[in-house]
Amino acid sequence: MLLQTKRAKVLGLLLGFLLFLLFICFSIVYGYTNTTWTTAIEAYTKYDGSNEHLIIQTVRMPRALIAAAVGASLGIAGALMQALTQNPLADPKIFGINAGASFFIVFAVSFFSITSLGAFIWIAFLGAAVAAIIVYFIGSLGRDGLTPMKFTLAGAAIWALFSSLTQGMLVLNEKALEEVLFWLAGSVQGRKLEYLQSVLPYLTIAWVGSLILARHINLLSMGEDVAKGLGQKTVLIKLVTAVIVILLAGGSVAIAGPIGFVGIMVPHLARFFVGIDHRWLIPYCAIIGGCLLLVADISARYIIMPQEIPVGVMTAIIGTPFFIYIARKGLTKS
């Protein structure tokens, strides 16, 4: 743990938040269309209807805010899942939650021609919830009950199942393929501010709820028997935590598609700074997650310019070596 004292952690949080704001500004200013910091400021103070001002207001600002919100949500979701399952590889995508949300959305587009964002949000929540319930049920089977390894294997199996079903539907329905292919790769490009506004109330509830639960999750991380001995209602805490993860993951998938590996990397990076106390870990995960996705999105604009690659591909490029490192270190508990 790098930051030992409360004062150091508060200072780190403030510096991290300033860096978070700076990356939002970078996302607004830099891209294929050449703009400057002055242009970005004048887009809101001296708007003249120019192409540069229009791009900043209608494209880059929504994109930056969505990346920040989704990154923060996935970072918190990863921390909660790792605490809930005692598994350092836990992540909404690895555990099949993102795949469940994606499958339900593609199913709705393919068979019911649903294109409403409001409908997408509820469908994504439903898909995330169904996937989480199935993974929990399968992982709990057997004499030993739910273990980190069984939970991981169940999540991987459900992820593979839903991903295969999704690909199968897209092969049979070319129209649906055109509508959701880029979204399925995980992207914040071309997303409108209305997307974030529609899902923000649910994400806000989840953000606040995760902070309220932080102290209880600390107790739960010490072991279920210890938590019960201290008077904690462990079943209720687990249920509420699962609902928060579903809100975070489902909301993120609804607006940006299934972006992976953020939930794996961010909690480990946050623990390096502040340790395992979730009262500090969760806000640090929010800031680091937002920064990570913003940096990944900015990088995605330049690698094959003038084309862009989906930010989900960038997080996979960054996250895969990290995932392998954790797995090779033997951190997964069986």
UniProtKB/TrEMBL annotation:
Main location: membrane
Location of the protein in the cell: Cell membrane
Pfam families: FecCD
Key words of the record: Cell membrane, Membrane, Transmembrane, Transmembrane helix, Transport
InterPro entries, per the entry: ABC_BtuC-like (IPR037294), ABC_transptr_permease_BtuC (IPR000522)
Xref: SUPFAM superfamilies: ABC transporter involved in vitamin B12 uptake, BtuC
Membrane topology, as annotated: Multi-pass membrane protein
The keyword Protein biosynthesis belongs to this UniProt entry's keyword annotation: no
Spans through the membrane: 12-32, 64-83, 95-114, 120-139, 151-172, 235-261, 281-304, 311-328
UniProt keyword Metal-binding present: no
Family: Belongs to the binding-protein-dependent transport system permease family. FecCD subfamily.
Xref: PANTHER family: FERRIC ENTEROBACTIN TRANSPORT SYSTEM PERMEASE PROTEIN (PTHR30472), SIDEROPHORE TRANSPORT SYSTEM PERMEASE PROTEIN YFIZ-RELATED (PTHR30472:SF65)
Listed name of the protein: FecCD family ABC transporter permease
